[in-house]
Amino acid sequence: MKKTAVRSFDPDVAKMLAITIVIFVIMVVLNGNFAKSSNLTSMCYQLPELGLYSLAMMMVMLTGGIDLSVVSIGNLSAILAAKIMKYATTNGFSGIKLFCFVILGIIVALCVGCFFGAINGLVVSKIKIVPMLATMATSEIIEGISIILTQGHSVNGAPEQFTRYGATTLAAIPYSMWILILVIMFTAFLLHRTRFGFEAKMVGSNPKASHFTGMNTSQVYTKAYLYSGVVSSICGIMILMRTNAAKADYAVTYVMQAILCAVLGATNPNGGHAKVTCMVLALLSLQFLSSGFNMMHLSSYFKEFTWGLLLIAVLALNFLTDYIRQKKGQHKAVQTTGSAAS
């Protein structure tokens, strides 16, 4: 019984849990105010933004792709929702009329995510353009549309009935955090309890073999990018709800941080492997670092340098780990062959 328990404990989760605890302890030692409830609550307001973009990135990376348009989709979704809601408040709508415009803004924002997510999926799966180039082009197009719509300015004026949910809590937890928790639960269910999750892992591991088994790989890619687009739109809506502002260039650094969070959270950049639990722990680690850096009044340039350095270190560590596992596997195979021959 004890041996089974030890074997069933996931080494990736253990490694990520240890890293998260070490970072938290270091930040507490460096700044005594870090563990105060006010700072933890503040982190709960900030965490969902990176969390949702990281989940979107994780899903496409699971299939062996990447989505550099997540932030652009979120920003355009927020801009269109803000413009619709602003129209309602500017014209003095109230009651049911105002509520309908808020719902309309949310629906339009989600449609933006569906549309561009599907476009990304079709371009990658049907036209066979490299995911990085395809989503980079989509990102530029979406950002261009956002700048045309806003003329480079911020769009605000969403009704108080909508924005108050971005600043209030339910059971001492911000509404935005509840949204993240629900999306995490849905994603875990999608990956581990549905056919799509199984197919996404198979396609990411070996797309050619998946195709020859009769699997509709194009549909799998499209669904993954569609998921990414919708989750990015949800993030845009949530940012608008919290800040009452939408901009074409809001949070552009989240793209790299989302990639870092996914890779740090045991997602294989080549596809076929992802763990929601590890991704959540990686998200907490990055948030602890970001909040700690802010409390130490370190510049944003230092943070970006740290993210880049951490990403390179994680990729190098993953490569080294895979190399060692491969060598051990070859060594065992040689020993087995030798034993069988003798």
Q: How many separate helices?
A: 14
**First-last Cα distance:** 34 Å
Biggest β-sheet description? 2 strands, antiparallel
Low-confidence stretches: 1-7
The proportion of residues in beta strands is under 5%
Computed CA radius of gyration, to the nearest angstrom: 22 Å
CATH class descriptor name of the largest domain:
Mainly Alpha
Along the chain, the helix and strand elements come as HHHHHHHEEHHHHHHH
Strand order of the largest sheet: 1-2
Helix content: over 70%
SS elements, strand count: 2
CATH architecture of the largest domain: Orthogonal Bundle
Structural class: mainly alpha
Give the overall shape: globular
Average pLDDT: 88
- How many domain regions? 2
Say what the CATH topology of the largest domain is. Answer: ABC transporter involved in vitamin B12 uptake, BtuC
What's the arrangement of secondary structure elements?
Elements: H1 2-8, H2 11-30, H3 37-62, H4 70-90, H5 95-125, H6 131-150, H7 160-163, E1 169-170, E2 173-174, H8 175-193, H9 195-205, H10 207-212, H11 217-243, H12 254-264, H13 276-295, H14 300-341
Antiparallel strand pairs: 1-2
Helix pairs in contact: 2-13, 3-8, 3-11, 3-12, 3-13, 4-5, 4-6, 4-11, 5-6, 5-11, 8-9, 9-11, 12-13, 12-14
